[in-house]
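chain below, 154 aa
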Amino acid sequence: MTLLNEAQVEQLKEITTRLRQVRQEKSIRIEEIASQTMLRVGILQALEEDRFEELPELIFLQGFIRRYGDALGLDGNALSYSLVTNVVCQDSKNARHNSDNKQNTYIPLVLTYILLLVGASAGLLHILNPQLTAESLTPEDNNQQSIVSNQTNK
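prediction:
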């Protein structure tokens, strides 16, 4: 899993602690939750024991939390949303610092795509009508051929 910042880890700990407490209060075994949510027992145990390094990316965690919360009778969407809002707030601060780097890579990519499109268009034009491209590239040769043909016709 990608590294979480401190705020994300704290938020995730609060959510998973609440999920574990509700499950234990309702005397539901973790295997029952696993079969109901179709999540592996190992993932649920890692969530409850705060072993976040064993878990997949954050986007998957949001789905796991939603399903786990729904299985316990909680509002899983609200739980996963609380994690999302915390992530968005923290990441927006970091995005300001990284925005300069994104602009520098964006321009060369646009130019590359434009050159690729121009090259592909020229190649397609040549393949579909090679005589047209030959005429447009050598107008002087065509003028000389017409002069020669006019002289031979006389």
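Residues 6-99 form a domain with the 434 Repressor (Amino-terminal Domain) fold (CATH 1.10.260.40). The chain has a mean pLDDT of 77.
thats it, cya
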